[in-house]
Amino acid sequence: MAIPTVMGTEIEFGIIVKNDPDFDPISSCVLLVNAYREDPEGRILWDYDQENPLADARGFQVDGEKYTPNQQENIARNKTLINGARYYVDHAHPEYSSPEVTNARDLVAHEKAGERILEVSRREANLLLPEGALMLLHKNNSDRKGNSYGCHENYLMDRRTSFKRIVENLLPFFVTRQIYCGAGKVGSENRSHPCDFQISQRADFFETEVALDTMVKRPIINTRDEPHADREKYRRLHMIVGDSNMSEYTIYLRNGVTALILSMIEDGAIDRDLALSNPVRSIKEVSHDSNLKKEILLDNGKRMTAVQIQSEFLEMALTYAARNPIDPCTQDVLEKWQHVMTCLREDPMDLAREIDWVAKKQLLEGFIERKGADWEDSRVQMLDLQYHDTRPDKGLYYMLERQGRVERICSDEEINAAAHNPPDDTRAFFRGECLRRYPGEVFGVNWDSISFAQGEDPVRRIMMSEPLKGSRVHVEELLNRSESATELLENLES
Amino acid sequence: MAKFIKSLERRRSDAADISSSIWMAASGEQKKKSKGGGEESSDSTEEGGQKMAKKGEELKEDMDSLMEEIDSVLEENAEEFVKNYVQRGGQ
Question: Labelling A147: which of A154, A269, A454, A470 has CA 20 to 30 A away?
Fold first, then answer.
């Protein structure tokens, strides 16, 4: 029996400051992240002791130096939020890591809340910039000059499922799911074949099938083995293949369908041979064919389109759902996936309300037609970028949303609630509530621990190696009778 | 780095109030629905043709209004902006 779904996303945003000849992305990121402060004293650390990004899921440890910043740098780069998220500076990008959630609907609310949190801090940060300078953020994955930054999905999996089986089952799925997960992009990069428009922002950047790297020679399947949980029981699948989506419907499918497929892998329910002959080449072929007609070569010599391969996965999922208990959210994901697959078979352009790449393509084609422009026109490239702009009055996705031209999954109220409150049903609840209730006593945080410092006493760390423990049901009563973290620790011991 | 963090401490406004921001203000705009596809017509070919033409016209008007709004939000100096949009590689 598959383990319950626990997932989250980590999104790196593009950052630029207009009219600033001295623009430096790292200090701009620090300015941005510090412009959003829930913690008035601003001295809570990210607990790097718990991290090991060099462990490989294939069973070995890679040589390399683990990054550990000094205390001042740590505080300046890391914010842990009351909603259970981490908001921080990663290399030269601001990054928002959602709290752990158990279903695709909560995932959408928390990922969209992240966009709003970044936008609020962007406005605050702009007040501190010199006259005329303007900081802008884009939830995209490429500058169209060969530089890419990620949207990483994380899924908790049963450690007993063999990593080899995960890789075999997932490769054809990941190569083809972009037909309903892609964010769309004008042109190609990274020495990929030239094209006017392609389905995915990221496909051009994948150079190998399976590896630990995330910044060079990017793999379709990343092997980082850092579960942030009991490593005897769990692995965390860290997936770097996806695009940063604006559409709620697309995010919902991206994470909802993938979580369902992973449950099926755990239960051995992927029983069709869809192994591809050359996944690295195919991921680009699929991305570059927005008519969805291109057939890709399978290991067994057959040729199938991406739509046909995804239809095979859908059929297996429907069989699985008929034989296993499925929660209402996953059932809804399955129905929306069926709807999208039907449209993709008939006319993909019918999905402009649901799927990012279609919405963007329709917008750009409309512009090209009316303005007599072409795909090389800098205004068309500008519109591509501006689709991902986080400003509600300038971002083109938000314009479509404002005009009622896109399907929503969550209400504005739900998204705003997710910006200020952790999910109820994971350990993020305990993390977020400790930050809300005892901010002066929290010393350091990581996904699977929180530590407290009281006066001169030694720092005490509470481990949270079970992602589903620490939920509202488990700890709210305990928190309610603990006026301080000192009392909380006493109550935990008694 | 410490210098501008200090400057942040000095002038802080409430960064957390998202709900009162323009996110909500924008929702007063007229909502439009424009689903492509939709109803199947069982009418005669002529009526069906008229309906198709009407639908085509509606789609055109819809696209026109979308393009008007795009004109009002499109970044000025697109060429320069696109040229200068360079990011460092991330993960």
Answer: A154
Is residue A174 included in any domain, yes or no? yes
* Cα dihedral A323, A328, A329, A334 sign: positive
Using one digit for the tens of pLDDT, what is the confidence trace for A160-179? 999 999 999 999 999 999 99
In a domain, A401, yes or no: yes
Phi then psi for A351, rounded to 5 degrees? -100, 25
Interface test with A, best of B4, B11, B82 (most A CBs within 10 A): B82
pLDDT tens per residue, range A287-323 = 999 999 999 999 999 999 999 999 999 999 999 999 9
Structural domain of residue A272, as residue ranges?
A: 7-38+81-417
Which of A56, A90, A143, A213 is the catalytic position? A90
Whether residue A233 lies inside any domain: the answer is yes
ipTM entry: 0.92
- Max Cα–Cα distance, chain A, nearest Å: 74
Residue A424 falls within a domain, yes or no? no
Q: Which two tokens stand for residue A491?
A: 């109550």
Which residues make Cβ contacts (< 8 Å) with residue B56, sequence separation at least 6?
Answer: none
Total residue count of chain A as it appears in this document? 494
Measured between its terminal Cα atoms, the distance across chain A in Å is: 35
Contact B82 A121 (CB under 8 A): no
Q: Counting beta carbons within 10 angstroms of the beta carbon of residue B3, is it exposed (0 to 12), middle (13 to 18) or buried (19 or more)? A: exposed
Query: What's the predicted TM-score (pTM) here?
Result: 0.92
The CATH number covering residue A247 comes to 3.30.590
Total structural domains within chain A: 1
